[in-house]
Amino acid sequence: MSRQDYMNTSVQEPPLDYSFRSIHVLQDLISEDPRTGLRPLRHSRSGKSLTQSLWLNNNVLNELKDFNQVISQLLEHPGNLAWIDLSFNDLTSIDPVLTTFFNLSVLYLHGNSIQRLGEVNKLAILPRLRSLTLHGNPIEEEKGYSGVTKADRTTAEVWKRMNIKHKKIRIKHTLL
Question: CA-to-CA distance for 164 and 118, rounded, in angstroms?
Answer without folding.
Answer: 38
